[in-house]
Amino acid sequence: MTLLIGALTVGLILSLLALGVYISFRIFKTADMTADGSTALGGATAAVLLVKGVHPLLATAAGAAMGMVAGTVTGVLHARLRIHGLLAGILVMTALYSINLHIMGRSNVPLMEVDTLVTGATEALKPLVGKADTHNIAGWQVASRDIAAFLLSVLAVIIVSVALYLFMRTDLGTAMRATGQNDQMARAQGADTGGMIILGLALSNGLIAAAGALLAQYQGFADVQMGFGMIVWGLASIIIGESLVRTRALGIVITGAVMGSVLFRLMVAIALRFGLNPNDLKLITAVFVLVALVVPDLLSRIRRRRGVQQHA
Amino acid sequence: MLEVDSLEKTFNSGTANEVHALQGASFELAEGSFMVVIGGNGSGKSTLLNAVAGSFIVDSGRITLDGHDITRWPEHRRARLIGRVFQDPYSGTAPDMTIGENLALAARRGLRRGLGWALASRVREDMRERVRSLNMGLENRLDTPIGSLSGGQRQALTLLMATWLRPRLLLLDEHTAALDPRSAQQVVELTARIIEEQRLTVLMVTHSMQQAVNLGDRLVMVHRGRILHDFTGARKHRLKTSDLLGLFDEVRRMEQLDEATAMMLKGLYV
Prior knowledge:
Chain A is mostly helical. Helices cover 78% and strands 4% of the residues of chain A. Chain A has one domain.
């Protein structure tokens, strides 16, 4: 049960990351490598502020804000200085590694002894469920900290998803989506497509850094390596989500990305439980994304070839 | 209204693919005038239109529209004054977004975009009304992705979008060339109706001789990046398709003469 609830919590936290990657990868059709750096940036910023005793909400918001700055830099490199989107992301990601080390002053900041959103949520939960450290849920003993973290992440995901959905349906959000789909048309309708890309990448990396800040508080430490491979993780979540919902309707796609992230984390947890070597995790994730990207195209090509043979 | 003064543009400057696309093109377009632009392939007629639209910044020359010097304005800023329909029906719309969302974008062309609801119910009523005027039965399909419509339907909607807020200048770039004859006819009729209703100033590039003869009150022929012929008023109205074909023949003979001269000079000097 602890394993399950833990997997769900991490899946939910990382669904914020998936939503961020959704903006760059699906709306703007670029793989924004900044994601790896801004995950750790969010975690590092929040951790350092938490250690200094800053209110956890403020520390988390600061982490997200730093992510937005990182996204803005990538956006300016790409949209204004005309650097290829992939390269712009790689440059900022690389730079962020040093910046994150400077922010933390070392490679790892533990958060076991400080007040975080998770400890805050645990305290807030006490009047509702009692002061015991563990609770009986369907015959399983679950730590109240785990319940609190789970509820906290549910709340965060609901707020962020709804806000993102509403934003995408405003005048500004509509222009942003149009920019990604047909920038020629967006400009003809008076949208500053460069500005839209910068704003979109800022938003994307803000969400990703928020995920990093929450993850650091949940796992009890921030680490300079914690963002490694996160872009691929986000892609995997989106791809799973899309295969679950099979539509382009905005609200459903956002729900799908969240579901994909949670499902993917569950699959990983189960695989690890049944003896998957943790060292192989990134390899398997990468292969999974590769297969998911290539197979649909391959299948249609094979089908076409068969069709041709039958007609011949 | 629109003043275009000695525009120069060279693409791929300094490479083997160098193209001197605009070579001092100049003209003035009066308010409410409808100018048809014709010319052979590579004559620079679309380049001229794109220069006005701001797809690129010209090397030299001046473009003034409605009292503003827009020569250095980026494309999206010019969109405040200019409505535009492209040749490719896929260029004018965002395919995965609904008809309503596409129209909502057009309803704020050139205006500030904030956090207002793009599809407010007030706007939707207006949309249904104006889409109904297309007589395509699309007014009840505002929530359909625009990518699922035919080329003709998309082009009609693009035209509606370009003129949703009355543009100071409407640019039409061979906007029926990619359509089947029936859809093309529909879009042409719609174009004429909207231009008439809103009394628009129009610049239209076409390679349909029939459209060139039937539409507009002025016709210019572009050749080698500048205006070669300019017909206005009664001279424009007297033009027949055979006259235009004659113009094209004349241009072809000029080209051949140029080539023959070049060959001769080559024989003499090289």
